[in-house]
Design brief:
The complex is a heterodimer of chains A (about 120) and B (about 110). Chain A is mainly β. Chain A is built from no helices and 11 strands. The termini of chain A are far apart. The radius of gyration of chain B is 13 Å and the shape is globular. Chain B has about 110 residues and is mainly beta. Classes of the chains: A mainly beta (about 120), B mainly beta (about 110). The interface of A and B includes residues 49, 96 and 114 of A.
């Protein structure tokens, strides 16, 4: 059974860099069949795609966040991570990690439970 | 970036109603398109991918159609557990984008 689990600090101060990690169990992040992605949702608002990474090194970012975001893989731990720099209150959101199927039927088929990140001094 | 315009933003309906939600893309995206359902405090759930393929385990009252720039999610007979927010997503090109969501409420 595939599971994704986000972990992170919960609270970050403005201007700091947040780091979130997604631990994947039940599948290998080195699989040729999947990308691995991050999506966020501010309180009471809609879903916002942040970025996706493939084990070959291909990485794609949101246009609005790409100057501040870095996504990376740690295949030895079967984890992938999100770093977002210079955070503000606008970055307060539930952050989800998810598996993205490659190919014609591409979609996000498995999601983590989400982790709430609050930016506050 | 490809923009997705989802309508309506809110929809009031009764159990048994036929419900239709539309999503329009700012450019052609073939069938690289998905629909998700999200209930309050819960993780989004994949309903449909490739515009019209029902995800395993999703009830057959849900259906998707469309290609190119216009897509539709239909619930043939709304059930109590279907009151939720629905999101569309394009996966044709990066950056990926979501629609703004449609909240289906009890009439």
């Amino acid at each position: 059974q595939l599971q994704l689990q986000e972990s992170g600090p919960g609270l970050v101060k403005p201007s700091e860099t947040l780091t979130l990690t997604c631990t994947v169990s039940g599948a290998s992040i080195s699989s040729n069949s999947y990308y691995w992605g991050w999506i966020r949702q501010p309180p009471g608002k809609g879903l916002e795609w942040i970025g996706s990474i493939y084990h070959s090194g291909s990485i794609y970012y949101s246009s609005s966040l790409k100057s501040r975001v870095t996504i990376s893989l740690d295949t030895s731990k079967n984890q992938f991570s999100l770093k977002l720099s210079s955070v503000t209150a606008a970055d307060t959101a539930v952050y989800y990690c998810a598996r993205q199927v490659r190919g014609g039927g591409t979609c996000y088929d498995y999601w983590g439970q989400g982790t709430l990140l609050t930016v506050s001094s | 970036d490809i923009q997705l315009t989802q309508s309506p933003s809110f929809l009031s309906a009764s159990v048994g109603d036929r419900v239709t939600i539309t999503c329009r893309a700012s450019q052609g995206i073939s069938s690289y398109f998905a629909w998700y359902q999200q209930k309050p405090g819960k993780t989004p759930k994949l309903l449909i991918y490739a515009a019209s393929t029902l995800q395993s385990g999703v009830p057959s009252r849900f259906s998707g159609s469309g290609s190119g720039t216009e897509f539709t999610l239909t619930i043939s007979s709304l059930q109590p557990e279907d009151f939720a927010t629905y999101y569309c997503q394009q996966l044709h090109g990066y950056p990926l984008t979501f629609g703004g969501g449609t909240k289906v409420e009890v009439k």
